[in-house]
Amino acid sequence: MSVKHAKPNFSPSQVSEIMKRLYNLTPSEIRPLPSYDDQNFYVAPSEGGDYVLKIMNTEDSKNTTIIELQTHAMSFLHHNGVPAQTAVPITSGQLMSLEEMDCGYGCQKYVVRLLNYLPGVTISKVPLTPKLLYEAGRMAARMDEVLQKMEHPHLSILQRDNFIWSLSNMLLLEGYMSVLDGDPMQKVIKSVIHQYKNSVIPKRSNFRECINHGDFNDLNVLVQPDDNNGYKISGILDFGDMSSGYYVYELAITIMYMMIEHPDPIEVGGPVLAGWESVFPLNEDEKDCLYLLVVSRFCQSLVMARYSVTLHPENEEYLMITSRKGIKILQQVWELGKEHVEKVWFQRAAQFNK
Asked: Which of 179, 244, 254, 291 is most buried (CB neighbours < 10 A)?
């Protein structure tokens, strides 16, 4: 975010007023939920039901077209059997409202949506068995396959050329390197960027294009117990990072975030890859770039977490969740090297599919 006060800071009484005015619902329980740069509340109205009130930050709220497209994508996935949230219409029939509110630093405009509450806990809270990792890979691939069939008059706005979280824009990290001054990780990240320039960019033209969710992380994937003493995926949250990209990007992002939660991170890639390829097999160039794309996502996460802490030091604990674990994993994966890590991933995937 480019400004200090982009993140909303609505009070429970403001949330209650919005719920009554926009949705004609009276909250009996309001509870804050974690969020990176928006504000989310669990709301249980006395009329029944469970909802999430999502209040977008001021910067993203300036682009209502892309939020409308994200809301459409969630509904499209839901209707095609992928467990995404859907938006509840306000009393006037629209799916979102632009609210002007003073959160303590003057009146600002925030996009507000009420989403249905999906059951389950985040995948970060349960053991990441090979079966569940396989399911995560399969679900991520299925999601991208469905999104690629979606039609919308404004799909072109997903070509987000300067979007810092797109793996196509890895080189934009060079402008943020100062947040790592004096940190030994700066050298590693500069090496990754150099390898990305030399090894990924020349092969990108052979990647298959799609629409990426872009943030299939351990806090955005919900699970519920299944009938076999394991877990199944029950929800995919947060479509704020949707952009035009490539199938292999989604796979790399999924592997990276599942590694964060696993006691032996190197073991994650095989089952996720096997699940992914059960839906969408990779071509040779995609396979060859997968390792670098995974480490590139680690770099994006680490650099942008550090940068966000400079803007929001009060939110450091949440912002640095991925970063603290990620530093150790990135060091380990980078030291092991591409050949070793790929061998583990591709051999495990082949064994899984036997």
From this structure: 254
